[in-house]
Amino acid sequence: MVLLSSFLAGTAYAADASSTTQTEEVRKLLEEYHLSKPTDDELNDAAIQGMVDSLHDPYTEYFTADQWKDFQDYMEQTYVGVGIVLTEDSGLSYVQDVIPSGPAAKAGVKPGDRIVSIGGQSVQGKSFSDLNGLLIGQAGTSVTVVLNRDGARLTVKLARSDVQLPIATSSMMPGGIGYLTLSAFSSDAAAKFGDELAKLEKIGLCSLIIDLRDNGGGYIDQAQKIAQDFVASGVLAHMTDRDGKDHPLELQGTAKSYPIYVLVNGNTASASELLSGALQDYGAAKLIGTKTYGKGVVQQILNVPSGGVLKVTIEEYYTPNGHKVDHKGLTPDQVVHGAAEQLIAAYRAAGGQSLTLTAGKGSVTVNGVRTGQSAVVRASGKPFLNLRLAAAFSGATVQYDAATRTILFARGGQIVRIPVAGPSLQVENGVSYVDVKQLAQWVPAIAWSDSAGTIVLNLKNQ
């Protein structure tokens, strides 16, 4: 029977729940008759995806062998590329960071280098997605990148290879304040975190900043091991299964004598929230930043006997004090917006007093820690710094006075009124920037310099 029907899509009669026999019969008829000639594998994948989609759970997923390999690479922070992190500033593309031991690092590429072309194509007008698409490719292939470094043109040929993003890195800031960033809870995250923590403790750690911003999580056992570096006894979280039964994750570790501050933001998720929530509940650390993502469910990895892997949500977790995380997130003890501003706030909370800030070419560096952030504009040959960042760096507050159309810059009991339309301010895309020379006059403790498109500010003995 052949039909030419005027029924619109979505108006067909709904079929009753299919039995296994019916499902198989429909599969065979589709393979035999459908215009697109679907294969058995295609229909199998579609049937599996349909079951997964019916759960309306974004975290339950089916992976083919190739997809599972890609997911594992993501969990372990590995990819094929050249080892460059890009940033953008005033329509220009720059190297924000270079991955240690990657092809770009070996070729001498440096943060702050401006990207001119990739593979013979100009980068002007291209999105980050376009640029990354030009940089990544098959391992063993090469791509030529043209750079501009302080006016000098450089051409490098980069061989694409497997690149391992650093899982944990650390540095010591002035005043014995350690900075330790964790990018993911990979299968060896706890060991790498422990190594970096031991380095800091060995050279005189007085306070610790743990950076979990943009850390999307990973393996729970790694969060459990790291938590035991800071909690003497307790639980990482309460795990509630489908029957409502609690399976607490026990902690037996060692508390630290020094204060700890954890940086979080809207991309701090899953295992990162597990760790952050436990440290916050036990008073082992203060959270600084913005509300976290709110992924409070746990998945288990199951091998499908006939092929593929199923990642299935099996539990919901609550913090040690019983706070729900899923769709709610964690609220920081101190809410601060802006990547560099958050780091400055954590450094000050930890007792830090000496700050060095470098800004320009799409990046801001605070005491040696680099963030991708456009913070400088130029007018009449003068540099202007993002006003809120300038206030955070100076230890000041800013507030708009609508009655006088001025911005109140308050620091140490002194208030400076900055006319919105005055020469000390530049406004671009709704963001205010302050004349750096004028800022240094308001805050005499600031010393600054401007060279090769980058400004450097120092503030000591606040």
Please provide a brief summary of the model.
This protein is an alpha+beta fold and 462 residues long.
How would you describe the overall organization of this protein?
With 462 residues, the protein is an alpha+beta fold. Helix 6 packs parallel to helix 7, helix 7 runs parallel beside helix 8 (271-281) and helix 9 runs parallel beside helix 10 (387-394). The chain contains 11 helices and 31 strands. Helices cover 24% and strands 36% of the residues.
Quick tags:
single chain; 462 residues; alpha+beta; 6-stranded mixed sheet; 5-stranded antiparallel sheet; 11 helices; 31 strands
List the helices and strands and how they pair.
Blueprint: H1 20-33, H2 40-53, E1 61-63, H3 65-75, E2 78-81, E3 84-89, E4 92-98, H4 103-106, E5 114-118, E6 121-122, H5 128-135, E7 142-149, E8 152-159, E9 161-164, E10 168-173, E11 177-182, H6 189-202, E12 207-211, H7 220-227, E13 233-240, E14 246-252, E15 260-264, H8 271-281, E16 286-289, E17 297-303, E18 309-318, E19 334-335, H9 339-349, E20 355-360, E21 363-366, E22 369-372, E23 376-379, E24 382-386, H10 387-394, E25 397-401, E26 406-411, E27 414-419, E28 425-428, E29 431-435, H11 436-442, E30 446-451, E31 454-459
